[in-house]
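Reviewer 2 asked us to include a model.

Predict the structure of this chain.
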Amino acid sequence: MRAVITLLLGLLLSPGPREQGERGTGTSSPGIAEETPQTAETCAACHEEQVTGTAAGPHGLAMKRSSESLFQNSCVACHGNAAAHLESPAKENIRRVPGVAACVSCHAASGNVSLSSPAHARGQVACLSCHASGHKKPGSTPLLIAGSHDLCGSCHMEQKSATLLPYAHRDGRRPFECKNCHSVHGKGRQGRLLDARNGGACIDCHTDLAGPFVFPHAPRETGGACVTCHVPHGSTNPRMLTRRSISSLCLECHTSLGSSHDQTKPRYRNCTTCHIAIHGSNHDPKLFDE
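Predicted model (structure tokens):
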């Protein structure tokens, strides 16, 4: 009788299968989230529109060209570990909006735009402020919400308005895209220009004015360069000059002309009639006709 009682007590007090897994071996039984792979295919079970949109868009296609596994891991790479979200699909237990760190984990060459552009950092401009998430068709390239002229102009309204003035840089009737001259991700802070050299962004197109010249025009040698005389985004003045008349512009620097250039006479109010090599000369220090 004592043996029967002992046996019954032993059965009652012995751990069940789950407790054996937790206490006897020191490991827990895997939950649903731990058994489920965190791939794009898994996410598509609930977020089909977002996953298929990404797969068909330029972002997803570029990842697939590199590696199928890169695309499959892209959801977790941007939105973080989804174990808790798979267990309980709530908005609070997943990173809904990826931060800058998620983007630069792949786009390391672009760097952190907030660090390279202090003004953008102050305005809390991050990657997704300008770039589409990739879930839908982007408005422009490279994966931009809109064309750079409209996108940049939403903050830089003064510059956008200037491109609509009578004299401006245009591709036909359409204003130049900002990215033709500027780079948000560039290292140079002066105007975020693609070419940070003195006048470099201008001479990429205006190569005939690049020099070097034996007798350069002084403004070309200063930090102001082209913008000393020209308005870069647009002007009401011909040749995008900062002043309506040539003489008014030249007299800002050449203040001591004396009686030899009597400004009451029309012939002396059009300086480039004689000083035609206005950007620099290889023959004459006074920039006369070469």
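Strands lie at 170-171, 174-175, 215-216, 280-281. The first strand starts at residue 170 and ends at 171. We have added this to the supplementary material.
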